[in-house]
């Protein structure tokens, strides 16, 4: 007996500080999936990332962008980003319909890579990103894991390393989703190994 149930959709929610390599990671992850003959959907969730919109299959800047919000609401970049993510949370049906539209075009697109903004307060002090993830998990039945990129060159000292660990732990607890921390730019990190108070295995 054949089941009419729709195939499951899996994906990654890619987060991390500005400059940690999130967009590069997302693009390379899609390339890896292509080599494995797995089709994916790359989604820009950063309303300030308007200059790379052609690189994404779905772009949240088509819904709103942070510059327009800053001008209209007379707020700064961080305030504009918070307002944008609040707007995204209230209009998730738009995003889900875009994703479902891509899947209707090709039913084998069952892996999604979400490229989220880098402002730490969105994860450590606000609830929008957590609520967006929960909506995808509980209302749309996407199976998602959080990939938190940490710039390894920002972990050169013990205090910097511990600070990164504490921020990562905060985000892991608050987002309430499967979570993995990834040190990015490790090729650069190894250049400074002789200056470290601990070895790279640590």
UniProtKB/TrEMBL annotation:
<keyword id="KW-0547">Nucleotide-binding</keyword>
<protein>
    <recommendedName>
        <fullName>GPN-loop GTPase 2</fullName>
    </recommendedName>
</protein>
<dbReference type="InterPro" id="IPR027417">
    <property type="entry name" value="P-loop_NTPase"/>
</dbReference>
<dbReference type="GO" id="GO:0003924">
    <property type="term" value="F:GTPase activity"/>
</dbReference>
<keyword id="KW-0342">GTP-binding</keyword>
<dbReference type="InterPro" id="IPR030231">
    <property type="entry name" value="Gpn2"/>
</dbReference>
<dbReference type="GO" id="GO:0005737">
    <property type="term" value="C:cytoplasm"/>
</dbReference>
<keyword id="KW-0378">Hydrolase</keyword>
<comment type="function">
    <text>Small GTPase required for proper localization of RNA polymerase II and III (RNAPII and RNAPIII). May act at an RNAP assembly step prior to nuclear import.</text>
</comment>
<dbReference type="InterPro" id="IPR004130">
    <property type="entry name" value="Gpn"/>
</dbReference>
<dbReference type="GO" id="GO:0005525">
    <property type="term" value="F:GTP binding"/>
</dbReference>
<comment type="subunit">
    <text>Heterodimers with GPN1 or GPN3. Binds to RNA polymerase II (RNAPII).</text>
</comment>
<dbReference type="Pfam" id="PF03029">
    <property type="entry name" value="ATP_bind_1"/>
</dbReference>
<comment type="similarity">
    <text>Belongs to the GPN-loop GTPase family.</text>
</comment>
């Amino acid at each position: 007996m054949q089941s009419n149930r729709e195939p499951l959709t899996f994906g990654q929610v890619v987060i991390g500080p500005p400059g940690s390599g999130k967009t590069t990671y997302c693009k390379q992850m899609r390339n890896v999936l292509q080599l494995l003959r797995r089709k994916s959907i790359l989604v820009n969730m950063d309303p300030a990332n308007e200059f790379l919109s052609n690189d994404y299959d779905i772009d949240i800047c088509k819904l709103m962008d942070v510059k327009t919000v800053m001008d209209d609401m007379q707020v700064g970049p961080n305030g504009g980003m918070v307002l944008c993510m609040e707007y995204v949370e209230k209009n998730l049906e738009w995003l889900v319909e875009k994703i479902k539209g891509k899947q209707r075009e090709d039913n084998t697109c069952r892996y999604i890579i979400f490229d989220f903004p880098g402002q730490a307060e969105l994860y450590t002090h606000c609830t929008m990103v957590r609520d967006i993830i929960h909506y995808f998990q509980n209302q749309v039945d996407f199976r998602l894991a959080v990939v938190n990129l940490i710039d390894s060159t920002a972990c050169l000292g013990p205090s910097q390393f511990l600070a990164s660990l504490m921020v990562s732990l905060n985000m892991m607890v608050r987002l309430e989703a499967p979570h993995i921390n990834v040190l990015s730019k490790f090729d650069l990190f190894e250049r400074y190994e002789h200056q470290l108070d601990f070895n790279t295995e640590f």
